[in-house]
Amino acid sequence: QVQLVESGGGLVQAGESLRLSCAASGRTFSGYTMGWFRQAPGKEREFVASITLRTSTSYADSVKGRFTISRDNAKNTMYLQMNSLKAEDTAVYSCAASNLYIATRTIDYDYWGQGTQVTVSS
Question: Which of 7, 24, 26, 28 gets the most CB atoms within 10 Å of its CB?
Answer without folding.
Answer: 24
